[in-house]
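Quiz preparation item.
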């Protein structure tokens, strides 16, 4: 997962244009602003911008949070039915 994050940061997964689109929050047609880009939740923790992505299937759950300006990447994995760690 860390290799994935490094490749994403280095522009090896998406080119610059698609990275920008993926990490830009969008608005609905009615003007409601979303905290979601193309695949990442764009939130903040105590005022610190983060990008987050998680997933689950049949008793397994994962959640990843990346703080770009500090290059901190935290990943949680679970093999039980549980609530999100964030």
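Solution:
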């Amino acid at each position: 997962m860390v290799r994935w994050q490094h490749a994403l940061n280095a522009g090896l997964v998406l080119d610059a244009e698609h990275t920008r689109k993926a990490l830009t929050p969008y608005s609905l047609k009615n003007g409601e602003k979303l905290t979601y880009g193309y695949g990442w939740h764009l939130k903040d923790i105590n005022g610190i911008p983060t990008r987050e992505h998680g997933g689950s299937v049949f008793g397994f759950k994962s959640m990843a949070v990346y703080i770009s300006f500090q290059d901190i990447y935290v990943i949680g994995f679970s093999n039980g039915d549980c609530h999100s760690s964030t």
